[in-house]
Amino acid sequence: LIRRQRQMCIRDRFYLPAFLLFIYTTGKRSKITKTLMFSFPVGIAILLVLVLNNAMRGGFFRTGYETSTFCGHIFAGLYGLLLSPGRGCFIYNPWAIVALAMFPLFYRRHPHLALFTLGLFLITLISYAKFWTWHGGWTPGSRFLLPMVPLIFLWLIPLFDKQINDSPYLIFWRGLAIVLFIFSFVLQLGM
């Protein structure tokens, strides 16, 4: 049981503190109310996963990945997840390069949300880069980073914020983002 718990997905252990930190640093509600509002649906989801694990695999903590470990080469995984021709996030979502360039502006406008999204992205990226099957099997594209795409998309908010003046800098990045988004859409259709 201890060996299985060590091999469970490491990134999930870091998501909960990231969510709780985000909840504590935003809004005006009390910390107890925020924690309860967050914990109830998370607790139900965890309970459902445990029940499904027991029904499908014969044990609450049997996930199907008991023999899988995080023993891969991290630099190969980082390159593969971000830049490789068959799986790279920046290959299949080239607008994410513009999102990275816009992150400092997004951080100035929304510091808590920026750090939260960056933290979730880095936790996911690093944990899957170390995973022995970082490539995600036979699927093209960055399967494991797909849940992070909407979070990265948030970093583009400053490009379309009416409160920021239309400097030539932003006009260039806005045009590049639109072109790369269309290219990405066409690329996804062609798969």
Task: Describe what this molecule looks like in 3D.
This protein is mostly helical and 191 residues long. Helices cover 65% and strands 0% of the residues. It is built from nine helices and no strands. It has helices spanning 2-7, 11-25, 31-57, 74-82, 89-92, 95-109, 111-130, 149-154, 168-190. Helix 2 packs antiparallel against helix 7 (111-130). The protein is flat.
Distance between the termini: 42 Å
Largest sheet geometry: none
Structure annotation, total helices: 9
Strand percentage lies at: under 5%
Shape: flat
Total strand count, please?
0
- Unreliable spans are 1-9
Radius of gyration: 19 Å
- Overall pLDDT confidence: 81
The assembly state of the depicted protein chains is single chain
Category by helix and strand content: mainly alpha
Order of helices and strands: HHHHHHHHH
Helix fraction bin: 55-70%
Q: Outline of this structure?
A:
It contains 9 helices and no strands. It has 191 residues and is mostly helical. The protein is flat, with a radius of gyration of 19 Å.
Topology of helices and strands:
Blueprint: H1 2-7, H2 11-25, H3 31-57, H4 74-82, H5 89-92, H6 95-109, H7 111-130, H8 149-154, H9 168-190
Can you give keywords for this protein?
0% strand, 191 residues, 65% helix
